[in-house]
Amino acid sequence: MRRALTLAVLATCAVLPALAQVADLRSKTEFRVCADPAAVPMSSQDGKGFENRIAQLFAEKLGVPVAYTWFPQGPGFIRKTLRAGLCDVVIGYAQGDEMVQNTNHYYTSAYGIVTRNDSPLASVEALDDPALGGHPIGVVAGTPPASNLARAGLAKNMRGWDLFVDRRVEDPVGDMLAQVKSGELAAAVIWGPLAGPLVKQDPELQFTPLLKESGGPRMFYRITMGVRLGEQEWKRELNSLIRRHQDEIDAILRDAGVPLLDDYGRL
C-alpha cells in the first residue's frame, strides 16, 4: 500500500512540471495563430479570410501583433504546430475534438446544399428529398452529409472529393461550386463557413442550410478556438475575449457570409 502511494506521488510530481512547461509556451508578446495558408474563405496567407479578421481583432484587444505558423490543415496539423509550441491558438476548431482544449464556442453553423438559383433542386431542404434522386451530387468524402446521402439511397449519385488535401494545390470546394454552376453537378453539400462566403459572391448560386434532416449525423456544429491541453489560464482569457466581443465577431462572420445558427441549430 505504501509503495503504491509513493508511486502515485512520484507520478504526480512528474506531471506537474510538464503542465507548468505547457503553460509557459504561450507568447505574451504576440498573438500566435496556427492556420492553413489556403483554407479560403476561412484563412489565407494574404490575411483576407474571416478567421484572419477574428485573429486581428483579438490581437488588437490584447495589444500585440498577430504572428502566424502556416501549415496545411490535415493529418499532423495540430502535432506540428500547436503541440510543437510554434503557435498558441487555432481560430476555428469543432467543439469536442480531443486533440485540443476547446474554448467556449463563438459560433454555430451547418452543412448545406448549394444549387443554382434556377435549378429544379433549388427548393430542396433535406437530403432525403426524392427530388435529389438521379442527379449527380458533390460531397466531401468522410463528412456527415456523405453518410446522410448514403442513408437516403443516393450513394450512386455521389461525386466525392477528398477530406484532407493541401489546399495550396487542390481546391475541393471551389471545384464543386464551379461544377454546380456549369451544370456538371446538380448540387453540392458543403460545410456552411466554406460555402456561404463563396456563394455570397456568386449571384447564380444559393446555399440552403440542412436543418430538416430526419436522421443520421447532425448537420450543425459549434465552433470554438483550440488551445493546448492544460493551458487553463489562456483558455479563460480567450473565453473572456469571446464573451466581451461576441457582437464584433458576429459582425465579421455575417459580413463574410457565414451562415449562423443559434446553439440549437436554428436560423
UniProtKB/TrEMBL annotation:
Superkingdom of origin: Bacteria
For this UniProt record, the keywords arranged alphabetically read as follows:
Signal
Q: Which residues form the signal peptide?
A: 1-20
Q: Which residues form a coiled coil?
A: none
Keyword Cell inner membrane listed? no
Q: Which NCBIfam families match?
A: ABC_peri_MoxJ_2
Q: Know the name of this protein?
A: XoxJ
Organism annotation:
Paracoccus denitrificans
